[in-house]
Structures are given as C-alpha cells and as structure tokens.
Design goal:
Two copies of one chain form a homodimer. Chain A has about 400 residues and is α/β, with parallel strands linked by helices. Helices cover about 40% and strands about 25% of the residues of chain A. Chain A has three domains: about 1-170, Molybdenum Cofactor Biosythetic Enzyme, Chain A (3-Layer(aba) Sandwich); about 175-255, Alpha-Beta Plaits (2-Layer Sandwich); about 260-410, Maf protein, CATH 3.90.950.20. In chain A, strand 6 and strand 7 form a beta hairpin. The interface between A and B is large, with 70 and 70 residues.
Chain lengths: ~400, ~400
C-alpha cells in the first residue's frame, strides 16, 4: 500500500508554521508498512484541494489530509470533499454531542458556527475527535481510502492513533514490528563501522535505520512479515546480538531519555544529587528538572561561571586553578567534591570546558571538556574533545555527563 | 509571481527528518512578494521528480528544488534535470575549484565521486556553494525559472541568500520592506484587541502578521509596492504608532533575543549578575550562557531545588519559608539578596514557582510563580500565574524574569 499526505493551510505556505505533522504521520505509516510516496502542502483553495486529491489518487491507495476543518470561512475542506465525492453535508449526532461535551468543559456556549462543525459529508464515516470540535472523516471509494483530520497536532495524533492507523493496519496484510535502541556519545559512521558485519547479516525482512540527533544516535530495527510472534522473536534475537557488540554505547530504548533513566536510578537507590556546572551553564540542571517529580532526588546546582565562584562557593583551591587551569581534571574533581559538601547530597556531576567560540588554546582547543562524576559507587573523571559549535558542545557535554552518571549507578 | 518548492529525499517520506527547509524558503519568498502555491516532498526517484516538475510547471513561474545532489548513487537530481531539459552534464571549472578548496580545508583527498560533483547540466548557470561541494543550479526556459540546491539547510540558506533571492528580487517588479517587532508576556488575542484600531487603519499596502511562540509574539509588518524609500517611511511611521500603543510589551526587533539584549545592557553598565533559581531549574542560566562572551558579565547561578539549599546556600531565613512558603514574594526577595551576597554581583534574578504537574494548591495553583529582580537601579518582585504545562511554565517564567531585568536596566 502506498500513501500520500496532503496538508492544507495558508500558514504553511508563507513559512509561518513548519509542517511537523507530515513527518510524524509518515513515520507512523512507515511503521505499519505503508510507504509514503509524496507529501503535499497546499493553500485553503477549493480548486487547489481538488487538483491535489486528483493527482494523489492517480499515484496511491491511501490519501491522508490535515487542515481546513475549523469553524471559520477560510476552512473549506469539508465542502470541497462534498464536491469531490458528489455528496452533501449531513448532521451527525455523535459529533454534536462531542462538541457539546467540549464546550461544557470549557464553560462556553455553542454558537451556530460550532454546531455546523457536527455536519459531515454523507458518504463518510465520522471519527470521534476527543480533543477538538472537528470530527475526523474516513471515506472509501473505488478501492481507495481518504481520511481528513484537523491540522492541530494533538488532535491529529489522537485521531491517527485511535482510528486511522488501526483501520489501515487491519486492511494492510503486512505486520510490522519495531524496536529502537538509543546510543550516546558515538557518531553514526563509527557505529556503522562497528556493527557492519551484524548489519550485513540481518535477514531480509528486518531493516535498520540510523536516526541521529546531536549527541544521540537511535538505531531502529523494523521487521515486516505476516507472523507477529515470529517477527518479535527475530527482532529480539538480533537486538541481543547488537547489545553484545555495542552495549557500552546503549543507554536505553524507545522513548527513554538519559535524564529520566538517571532520575529513576537515583530514586531506586534513594540517592540525592546536585550539579556543579561551568561550561554547561545550568543546562544539566535544566534537563534534570524538566522531569516532573525530580525534586525527590535533585537538590540543585551551582553554576560557577568564574574562577571566584569555583573557589568561594564550591571551595576549589585557588592553587589548583592556578596550577592546572579551570578546565582540568583536578578542578572538576574539586568542583564535584565541593557541591557534595555544600549541598549535602550523595551524587554529583561537575563539568568545566571551553564551549567556544573564544577561549581555546593550542593545548586546550575549543570543545575541550572535563567531566567528573562522584557517587557512593565510585569516582570518575573524563576528558572529552567536542567540536567548534558552542550550542552543540553544551548539549554533548551534558549528555556525556549524564551517561557517565548512569553507568556509575548501573 | 508564484512559486512551488519541491524537496527531494527518502528521509522526508519515512518521517526521519522534518522538512524545515520549506518553511524557511517560503518565509523568504513571501518577504520578496513571491507567493508559494505548493510545497511538495518526493522520494529520490527519477519518474517522480519528472512528474513533480511537470505538475509544478503547469501552476507556477518559479520552481525551487532541494536535495538529491550528493555524491552517491541515490542522488539523481542532476541527471534527472538533464533528462527534463534534454541536455547533458558538462564539467564546470569554478565549481571544481570550490570543491578543491573545501577538501584542502578539511585535509582530505578528492575522489572521482567528488570530482563528478563539479559537473552540471549544460543549460544551467552554476551558483557557488561556499559551504559545500554541490553547486547550486539556475535554469530559465520558456519564461519559467528553475533552481536546484542541496538539502543541507546551511548550504541551501547561503545559496538562497547569496544568489537565488537577489536574482528573483531583480526579476520581480515588487519591492518588499519588512520590520518585525518582538513582544513578551502578552497573548496574541490580548495584543490583537489592544491594537485593533491601529491594525484596521493600516494602509492597504502594509500587512500585519502575528507570529506566536511560547512567551513571545512577533508582529511582522510587510509593505509591498514600488518605491523602497516611501515604503520604509510608511512602515516606520506605523511602527512608531504601534510603539505608542504597546511599548511596555516590546523588548526588541528582528533577530533580537532577551538574553542578548540583557547581556548587552549589563556590559554597557559594567554590571555583573547571577541567578537564584527554583522552578526554572537553571534554565535562565542556560539561556544567558548560550550567548558567546556571557562570562564577561554572568558569574553563575544557584539552583535551589529544595528548602535546605534556599536556606543553607542562599541564606533564606527558615522563618520566611515557614511563614510565607517557598513560593512567595518574601522568599524570592531573600533568594535574590542571598545570591548577590554570595556571588558578589550587582544584579540578580530569582524565581520560585510551581511548575507542575504536581504541587499545586487552591491558593497557589500550578503555574503560580514569583520573580524578583535586584539591580543598582531598583528592586522589583512580581507574581505570575502561568498555565498547567511544566515545560511551558519554565520557559514563560524565564522570559518574564529576563524581561523584568531588561526593564529595570533600561
């Protein structure tokens, strides 16, 4: 089965909004074995919508549309679909009750415009939109499938997950199983070289995708076939073999994040922690406190952006800084020891480095970063040499430090 | 003039990569008065590329393509364009010298595959790509314009800015002038109500766009016409009138950021600063230290994620916390005073709030946030009530605090 995604809305064509819906939908479709042939963004224009659907219909079996379903005049998708299918709008009671429920919740009165949102083309199956007032719509005609959804991302996602993907999966004869392994601190090409033989030996029905982000590479295994149990067992066996090759780089799977994993480990051990940050400037604390409930184990941080603060607040010896420099193994060790003392915690991360663009020397170029991790399980200091880009250096240093803590607690 | 953007690459169709290029290009085109009629993403397939160009050609005057220009087998755009225009590839000396320059810089030897990147269709004008080895290409045929660029964002952007936009602007008879005003801490609908009469009175050749982000709303004025000086004077007069209406919400223009503006003010005054953060968890320090050179004025931060740290490190009185709570005017004031004392700085921001999702009460619901700003110019404490979303509460609190500091220093 092949699909085309059509996103409708003037805001996409003046660059006001980045179309993130399409990538998400394409990712979901590819996970159930449906190949996306084209993604098309067009304006709220009747003629253009009709042309786009006609062109798509000549290429694919499934056409998914988002946008143009709001209550105002510009939102013309529904009427245009009536024209396309030669049908008319009819009132749908279930959709109206959903609108009533939402307005009651928000404490507003329903206007005539909102009531009109409960009207749908006569030939469609309305799909319940629990997060909004515009129902999703499912059409089948001449062996092709058409679905229309609102463009608001969380409304679209719920409609896809609750209705459209299960319906498509029921029609598609292919079963898809996937598993995503998360690695930290190692580049795509280095990983590729390390797992080359394993990758070449993968059976034909299992595909590997590299999904890189700054500091993190995700490896997604996708198996497609008929027997779900068999696919799962194949994927799991191959994942086990992958763990044997690169276990030191793997920190989690699926939707895991380092800050969440580390947080759970700290809770398990009943440990408390704090950070002493120089070049990362509070970014590690920001990542950790992004997790709801982190105050159970995270006590705080000292961002020491000058030598005086390292000395006066964290208790780093002026002699250490004079002799070894602020970016040194000795300094990060004293920073970590200092924050443990000052904040009365078990565990500490400390970081000092040259984020750039200035401040580099021949001996310590921009990107040079020292990290120290102290916990009841041990002490480790490590030097990293990242790149030239300030923002990316900060991100990579933070992830590397969290991963060192994870390994020490594990 | 109307345009279509065609982005080529399998990675877009499996959802691996979000197409951010198109929105940026569409935004740039709309600023020079060219309307984007459609954005199309397709796979690296010869047939599909040919169909997409043909369909686009029937709709628009300008077709901009990105992607498929790398050195490997999958990258077939160049050969497909030769087929489309009925021409052949020829060697281009200037492009080759650019490739040589880039390889010299990286210390690599040129392979045959890279040398082939200097070949371009005979009927095109090659465009120098200073950031990469694949040249841009400009075609004109039967009154239509076609341009092809690499999909790597910073290569595409430089080609657009240096070559394609100036060429399109020279052809387009319309002159466009724009000015973007940045506001903080006030919602789109509130702003719209406040400037309604002003907006209605705007002359026809000046358009207003609201570009909202969490915590920040950008107001973009775009004037289109023939006489540049006249347009600029019209835009400036209307902007002056806008400042009179909402000056207390405006913090900058264009590409300004609050952390950059505040940093420049601190430098000008020769002030130093530090932050004492509870609910923002180091995010304000992270924003400030994202600016290169911020160590000139930023000395650091204490993230006090527990009452003990507020008391022991920042010197907040236990009685204050007991009597008024950690989220109170009294506590943020003592936090700010404490960090000024501890870090020996002139200026401080302190924040304490309930980021959520837990910890709210009837009196202090999730989103309740106190901010204090102390500088040699004054002292201010303020209470905010943000929303229910943890990440957005952290972002909005940080921006609100930076804006309070900006106003006090201004």
């Amino acid at each position: 089965m092949k699909a085309e995604i059509i996103t409708i809305g003037d805001e996409l064509l003046i660059g006001q909004v980045i179309d993130t819906n399409s990538a998400w939908m394409a990712g979901q479709l590819s996970l159930i074995g449906i190949k996306v042939a084209q993604i098309t963004s067009i304006s709220d224009s009747r003629e253009h919508i009709l042309t786009a659907i006609k062109e798509a219909e000549s290429r694919v079996d499934v056409i998914l549309m988002t946008g143009g379903l709001g209550p105002t005049r510009d939102d013309i998708t529904k009427n245009t679909l009536c024209d396309y299918f030669g049908t008319k709008l009819v009132f749908n009671q279930e959709s109206f009750e959903n609108i009533e429920r939402i307005f009651r919740m928000r404490g507003y009165n329903i206007t005539l415009l909102n009531k009109a949102q409960a009207e749908v083309p006569e030939n469609c199956t309305p799909l319940l939109n629990v997060n909004g007032t515009a129902p999703g719509m499912w059409f089948e005609q001449n062996g092709k499938i058409y679905a229309s959804m609102p463009g608001v991302p969380f409304e679209m996602k719920a409609l896809m997950e609750d209705h459209i993907l299960p319906r498509l999966q029921a029609i598609s004869s292919t079963t898809i199983v996937h598993r995503t392994i998360l690695t930290q601190g190692v580049g795509e090409s280095f990983l590729a070289a390390k797992i080359e033989a394993w990758e070449t030996a993968l059976p034909k029905h299992i595909k590997l995708a590299y999904l890189p982000q700054p500091g993190i590479v995700r490896l997604r295994l996708t198996g497609s076939g008929r027997d779900k149990a068999e696919l799962e067992s194949d994927i799991n066996a191959n994942t086990d073999a992958l763990y044997e090759l690169i276990s030191e780089h793997i920190f989690g799977e699926g939707d895991d994040s380092l800050e969440l994993i580390v947080g759970n480990m700290l809770k398990q051990h009943n440990y408390t922690m704090a950070t002493a940050e120089s070049c990362t400037g509070g970014y590690i604390a920001h990542l950790i406190t992004g997790i709801a409930g982190s105050s159970d184990y995270f006590k705080g941080s000292v961002v020491a952006y000058s030598n005086e603060i390292k000395e006066n607040v964290l208790g780093v010896s002026p002699k250490t800084i004079e002799k070894y420099g602020a970016v040194s193994e000795e300094t990060v060790f004293e920073m970590a020891a200092g924050i443990i003392r000052q904040f009365n915690v078990n565990c500490a991360i400390s970081v000092s480095g040259i984020a750039g663009p200035d401040g580099g020397t021949v001996e310590k170029p921009v990107g040079t970063t020292w990290v120290c991790v102290l916990t009841p399980k041990g002490a480790e200091t490590r030097k990293f040499t990242f790149g030239e880009h300030r923002g990316r250096n900060i991100r990579r240093a933070a992830l590397a430090a969290l991963d060192m803590l994870r390994k020490q607690l594990g």
